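Sanity check

After download, print the first record. It should look like this:
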Amino acid sequence: LIGCILRVCGFGLMSLLPKPAPQPHPPSAPATSTSSPEAVTGATLSSGATATAMHTEFAALSKDSTDARVVTLANDFIEARLTDFGGAIRDVAFKKYPAVQGQPEPYLFNQLHTDPMLAFTDFPGVDRQARFNLISSNATEAVFQLILENRVEVTRRYSIHPAGATLKEGDDPYEIRHETTFRNLTDQAITLPRAGVSLGTTSPVSTIDYGQYLNVGFFDGEDFHHTERAKLEGGGFLANFGIGSREAKPFIEELGKVEWATVKNQFFTAIFTPDQPGIGTITRRVELPPLANSSRANIGIAGTARFDLKTLPANGTSTLSGHFYVGPKEYKRLTTLGQGQERVMQFDLYFFNRILFSGFVSPFLLTLLHGAHSIVPNWGVAIVLMTLFLKIITLPFTLAASRASKRMQKLQPQLKEIREKYKDNPQKLNQATMEVFKENKVNPMGGCLPILITIPLFVGFFAMLQSASELRFAPFLWASDLSAPDTVTHIFGIPLNIMPLLMGATMVVQMRLTPTPTTDNMQMKIMQFMPIIFTLFCYNFSCALALYSTVNGLFTIVQQLIVNKYSKDVATVQPAPAVVGGNPWKKPTKNVTPKRKG
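Expected structure tokens:
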């Protein structure tokens, strides 16, 4: 069982290792429109068909017009810049999160994009090519308006919570309230087309991010569905067996009820929660300029939420509205939004996460981590305290397992004798072995419990670190960023990461101190290689993960030293029974001969 779990975890972790970057294709030129909103034909409004036409492998980046009018909405947490082209959100700056460690400039979400956020992507006349009139604006609200074909008035309103405001339950300072109102200026009903609303464009956050965290998803009220960037790239090992596409795809459309939709990277996300559900999402690949100090292709994704717009009655109105969260992936903050938006954390993204209950373990660990951080101001120290707490509450189990391992170790000479004696008779070998366990009151699985407990905790902690924006740029000792490897220098181009090496060293010491419940030479060699293999697996993962494992190992070493020194010897080992047949579990027949009288 343990072997299977380790293999599953190993293959799962290998799936997250860097993949060869796809060879970029030259992006097509951005689409341009020569027609004004008033020149759009009546078919634009009467047609219910989509206007999506994507024939290239990559979606094209848009360039903001030099004469665009930009207004800014700001509070203590965000600075949202709105453009009159499309009447939408050009980008959002996070005041609490710097773009580069040690630099004052804030991180910009949607800095490079195919469309402004909440812009209509396939509604000619009101998309990013259309220029709206700015009707009004202040520090927390902006209103844009456009007259389409002299028949429909389109009004787009944006507002944020003011700085220092007291928020009611379900509100958040990272949220932007949006309303688009269509007003019919004629005496006849007008059918509006199916439209897409841009969720934004996102990309890897650093050179050590290989894009495995990029996806577009939506929640249908019961399940979270997502499209990873890898699904657009095509090829891969499984494509040889007919699973997935061999060729790259320009876009993927997912249909379903959209309670909310999101586009995200490792630490940040944009989530649109409409007042009326949508009908699906579209995910597109976007070629971006390479990241600084990296020659690898920088491939991002753009997300679109799809909606069926309501028919406009004569002189009537219709509204598309909702809340737009643009901010960090902070689990506690997302849970307060009230509609399951915390699922964007995707703690159970992979199969091995699900079978090891990461969907429950990761939130528990993150809650413990925040509790520890409320006591100490440093996230690294908080990880140490959280690890010690977990070790203390699992101490009874590990002590019982240590005693079981010592018993098993004492039994090894007799078990070896039995194997030699019954090497040609597996049935009698098994019977004799079980009788030895029974006579000495030893549970052969007793020493496995700590591993079974540790594996879900380790995998859950790993899953938590994938999205915990709190650890981004958090320093500890020599590590400048707990969410990244603690590289101190490079030797012949190979990074020197200290914490994974310490983790491997603690595993070696721990294994030397722990009683070995086997004398099988092959098993012992495998166990000797485990620290090396594990260190290689974790070498380029975040420093926080190695810190957790190192502290866990140090505590176990101290615990094992105490157990080895002060634990009492177990009962005298009973000699191995001579099994010649019958059931070793059957109780011996009692002597029922009556005693003589007198």
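If your output differs, re-run the checksum step. Summary of this record's structure: Residues 15-44, 46-55, 570-574, 576-587 have pLDDT under 50 and may be disordered.
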